[in-house]
Every structure is written in structure tokens, then in C-alpha cells.
Amino acid sequence: MNIESVCFEHTLDVVWASGEVSHYSFMWLRDNARDERSFDARTHQREVFTASLDSNIKPLFVERRNAGALLSIQWELDCSPIEYTSTFLYRYRQPFKTQTIRGTSTLWDRDVEPPVVDYPSLSDSTQTDQFLTSMIEFGFVLVRGCPTDLSSVNALAEQLGYVRETIFGGVWSFEADEAMADSAYTPRELRPHTDGSYSLDAPGVQILLCLEQSASGGESILVDGFAIADKVRREHPEIYKYLCHIEVEGMYQGDGVTLLARRPILRLNASGELEQVTFNNYDRNVMRLADDQMQQLYDGIRLIDGLFNDPQYQWRHQLQAGEAIVLDNWRLLHGRSAYVGSRKLAGAYVNREDFISRLGLND
Ligand SMILES: [Fe+2]
Where does residue 173 rank: exposed (0-12), middle (13-18), buried (19+ CB within 10 A)? Predict the structure, then answer.
């Protein structure tokens, strides 16, 4: 969009070719100048020493050039004018919030039609786009036709970022093993939970691949944490407030480490939008809050855990060998019914920021 006209009395006021009008403070314009003295285009790093700018900084003159595709601004104290492209100014023409997954998601319950992708088709960019779109919309994808070895976990991780190293290693495989320190390694029921409640940066994505399946039982369970949060917000606003404000501490103790992290079960961003659901009753540490706060937390847990375990909100599926679930661990809860027999799975985590970058939400 080209610039039709400008004036600069107290702010820079731009009239766009569409007739829309935008205002920019002088400080913002000087701080975000993209010329080579102010900004390193190679590293995308700011070179301006912002704190040293005069808070009353003003342009001496502003010139519209190239039929409104450029503005040239001569600032007081600068030796030469700085050019601003209309593309850059138009992108920031008004305050905006960063796009969130919650803003583009479709809430679901037990009747969700699971998004399915064939593993071999992931080399095709159209299918990869479909895979990423489903991760944004539903928070999970069922991948069929995976080779039943660890290479496919690696390949799926690379669709979204790269394999994250944790206390459990990178790509892991497991079957029921009572000797392990974590409840995930037993054949008992695993109630819906998120992973890494004890991590300051909980895994963004979890990949679970079924390598062998000859058990009876052992259905995988997924729950849309965003949908449950939305229901609580609408129907129990008081409890929603507790769940958004009371920090819960998660703990992992074993293998020579003690990992601790605290955040509310429903973590909102500064704009009040839901960013992350964290719930793992197995890993919740002992906390001694004031009695009324403890009571509020227990009310919250009773309500939300009841909803997470209500079959109406659970998508259930018996994973077969060669099937993988890729899930958004900041949105979905996962669990598994008890089983008897042999079941072998492999998995890995991907970091949140790499996942978000791959989704293109930062562009
Ligand atoms: Fe888990």
C-alpha cells in the first residue's frame, strides 16, 4: 500500500492510498529505523541505543518519494535522512497482538473427526501444510503408515523442529517397566495430563509412535484442554479465575535430579488469552498455600479433572503398530487406559518456539 500524503506535527500522520490514516510516534519511528546504522539486516538485530534517544526527538523534514513507496525522514541530530519503506510502515500501521494458536483453533470433544496424514505423503509439501494446519486447528494429527522404528519419530520431529533432549533422552522407546521412576512406564491407567509440568519450558509437542501392539486395552486418550477451559470460563467463572491465578508446582524427582516449575493450570497471556494448559496430578508437588487458596485450588482441580475424565470430552483410539499421534502439549491432555499384554511405544518432544516458528505464526 502506498502513501498518499503525510504531515508531522506531534506524530507522523500517514494517509494511505486507501484513505486509511495511521499515526506513529517519533520515538517509535526513530527506534525502529531500518537503515544500516540503526539495524543490522543480516542478523535482524537493532543497532540503535534506544535509551540514548531524546524522548522529544522530532523530524526536521519528511519527504514522500517514489510515488509514496518510501518516506525519507531527516531527524534532528542525525547527519543524513533515514528511509522508511511503505511496506514496513503499513505492516505496523496500528497496534496489533501477536497471533496465538487459541485464536485460530477449533474446539472439539469426543466426536472430533481426527485429522489423519499418511507418513509417506509427508515428503509432499501440500501434505506437510495440511499437517501443520491441523496442528493449529485441532492440536493433534494421527499419522498412519510410519515405519516402526525410531527413524520415523525423528522424521516427524523434523516436520516441527527437532528432537528435544530431556532427562529421558532424545527419542525414547518404552514398554511397561515397573523399575522406572515415572507412572508412564506402568500398564496402569494414565489419567489425562500434560507432560513437563515440572519444566519451566514444557515440551511444545509430543510425538507418540506405536511400535508393537498386542495388548488388550491401552486406548490412547486425548482431551482438548482449550475446549475444557472454555467451558469452565463460561459455566464456572469463579473457578476459572482460581485456575488462572493459583500457581501449581510440578516436580520430577528421580535419575539424580529434582526439577520444579510453577504456573497456573490455565495460563493466560497479558491480554487475557489462554496460552497454555498444564495439568498433571501425578507430578503435582506438595504445596502449602493459605487455607482459602488451597480450598480454591481443590475446587478447581475437582471440576477440571472431572471434565478431563468425562468420556464426552475424550477422543479415544487404540493405536496400531505404525500409527503415531503428534500432539500440542500446551493445549491437549493425553492419557491411556489400562492394558494387559505387550505394547511398545516410542516418542520424542519438540520445543515450543520451534513448533510455533514452523507453523508460521511468527511471520
Ligand atoms: Fe505423558
Answer: middle
